[in-house]
Amino acid sequence: MPASSPRVLWKGAISFGLVHIPVALYSATQDGSIDFDWLDKRSMDPVGYKRINKKTGKEIARENIVRGVEWEDGQYVVLTDKEIADAYPRTLQTIEIERFVPADGIPFIHLDRPYYTAPIQRGAKVYALLREALVRTGRIGVARVVIQTKEHLAALVPAGPGLVLNLLRWGADIRSWEGLPLPDADARKAGVNDRELKMAEQLIDDMSGEWKPEEYEDRFRDRIMALVERKAEAGQAQDVAKLEPQEQASSGAKILDLTELLQRSLRGGKGRAAAKDDEADEGEDDGSTRTKAAAGKRAAAKAPAKRATAKSAPARKTAPRRKAA
Questions:
Q1: Distance of alpha carbon 64 from alpha carbon 83, whole angstroms
Q2: Which range, 125-134, 141-150, 222-231, 255-264, is most confident?
Q3: Structural domains of the chain in order of their starting residue, each with its CATH number
Q4: Angle 143-149-153 (CA atoms, 0-180°, nearest 5)?
């Protein structure tokens, strides 16, 4: 299959203190699994999913479908579209860094999906500054970001020439070790003796080497694609109507004087209080406008009650019995 050029998935800004770095987000991974689409063999039209009542087996009209959350076994709470829409986080085009933590401070089990970030507009210098500062301090940024109406926790990690935004799993989504049939944490109590441990260590040393991802391939995918290629070359490929892609709205961001913003951030609350008027003045000096990210940040600061409510809401949803219908 031909390789496609990188596609911008999201545009906005990295924010820490009063500094905003305009960036674009690119996918850092690709799904190599085989996607078996459903087709109507009579017409080769794509086949979708029907809305079926699981009890009666009958198809249901869209207007008769509501959304509910299981509260207890067999009991559901129905939510209106407006109630669900009001619970969505406000879409701010900002990767809002809330804390810097040691680079090895986040367990790998929390890592979910990586994205590349790259500077846009005039963000190259401050992007490089943040990247180098993170490398020298051995820190990564813990941030919140809203992508397609869903809020994510994320880690901003320096990697080579760039910064990787790695979405994180929420703490409530990580299962406990409790209940698993694990051996004792003490190797001796688990029955392991020194001789066995030394032999295991030697075997690991013998099999050790550098990580080379190109040496590992998805063999099932390769076999299926080889079969697809043979059948296509034999003239067995058929045309299927394609759906029109939907474009996502995006917005950019501009930055103000970097040194001044860093100084204000270090001054803390006093600098933040005076930032609104000063940023407007500096924006007129260089012909720039305030960023959407900065405006969103100040708006969020004016409504702490709403944000606090949004953060506390997931507490009930952690119960294992409650599932979305």
A1: 17
A2: 125-134
A3: 8-36+77-176+251-255+291-318 (2.40.290.10)
A4: 20
Residue pair 23/95 in contact (Cβ under 8 Å)? The answer is yes
Q: What's the CA gap between 92 and 151, in Å, rounded?
A: 10
pLDDT tens string 8-49:
888 988 877 676 778 888 776 565 555 566 666 676 666 666
Q: What pLDDT, in 10s, does the model give residues 260-298? A: 777 788 877 544 444 444 444 444 444 333 444 444 444
The Cα–Cα gap between 201 and 199 comes to: 5
Write out the chain in H/E/C secondary structure: CCCCCCCEEEEEEEEECCEEEEEEEEECCCCCCCCCCCECCCCCCECCCCCECCCCCCECCHHHCCEEEEEECCEEEEECHHHHHHHCCCCCCEEEEEEEEECCCCCHHHEEEEEEEEECCCCHHHHHHHHHHHHHHCEEEEEEEEECCEEEEEEEEEECCEEEEEEECCHHHCCCCCCCCCCCCCCCCCCCCHHHHHHHHHHHHHCCCCCCHHHCCCHHHHHHHHHHHHHHHCCCCCCCCCCCCCCCCCCCCCCCCHHHHHHHHHHCHHHHHHHHHHHHHHHHHCCCCCCHHHHHHHHHHHCHHHHHHHHHHHHHHHCCCCCEC
Residues 118/120/125/128 CA torsion (nearest 10 deg): -10
- Burial (CB count <10 Å: 0-12, 13-18, 19+), residue 236: exposed
Buried b (16+ CB within 10 A) or exposed e, 197-225: eeeeeeeeeeeeeeeeeeeeeeeeeeeee
2, pLDDT greater than 70: no
- Which two three-digit tokens encode residue 189? 């109590």
